[in-house]
User: Fold this.
Amino acid sequence: MRLWSDAGQWIGLRVINALARSVPMEHERVAYGDSPRHHLDWYRHPTPGTRPTILFFYGGNWRSGRRQDYRFVADTLMTLGCDVVVPDYRLYPHVRFDDILLDARLATDAVLGRLAPASPLILMGHSAGAQIGALLTLDASLLSDPARIGGFVGLAGPYDFYPFTEDDHWELFGPEPAYPASQPVNYVRADAPPLFLLHGADDTRVRRGHSKSLMQKQQAAGGRAERRVYPGLGHVGLLLAFSRLHRRGHPVLQDVAGIIATLNDKS
Assistant:
């Protein structure tokens, strides 16, 4: 589930971010804790108005990533009429998953604390970030006010991956009694916010069976879950749909725009 695997891909990400700076915005860096990794970037439209806010968790196999490198995602989501927040969180091997999830909880509560009570918050994530976002959406015990989460959009997320297939995941998600807490499928519930699970048909990093499993189990529990699979897209390609080079008329962005409109109408 590591997003970028070599220096060439990192350079490409920098280029995508350089091209992304096309939307008028206000940017604020917010500290939500004491660690150097406890910061988030908050992108707002400069004109007043009530609009949805999307909290986006990036991926990177829970061991890599920087919020600054996902400026292009915020840029595109802002063209869809949203304000956007991108947090950093601590990473493995410096911490295990329970601390990573704690950081995500703190960041989400910090955002909720700064939003007006009527403002909807949509959680979104890619890859490992989608697993984090799904847990926050489904496990009502994690947030101070879970009812304020309007919905979840998961991009190529791992939701049902136990037993682990990567050797270091046994340590990352340990100790052993904590293994079930890493699996979003263990928290399906009828009263959860709606789940929209997007996956590339050609994803070989996080196979599309993960989103199928979560959708089926959430529906069986009486909750709402929808899944969309995109032919010809792999793990990274699903996220690159948000780049300025690809976003015009892209089916992923058309679907995301429709999802946001649907969730905003219900808020």
Q: What stands out?
A: The longest strand covers residues 149-155. The CA atoms of residues 190 and 220 lie 9 Å apart. The longest helix spans residues 97-114. Strands lie at 26-31, 39-44, 53-57, 83-87, 121-126, 149-155, 195-200, 225-230.
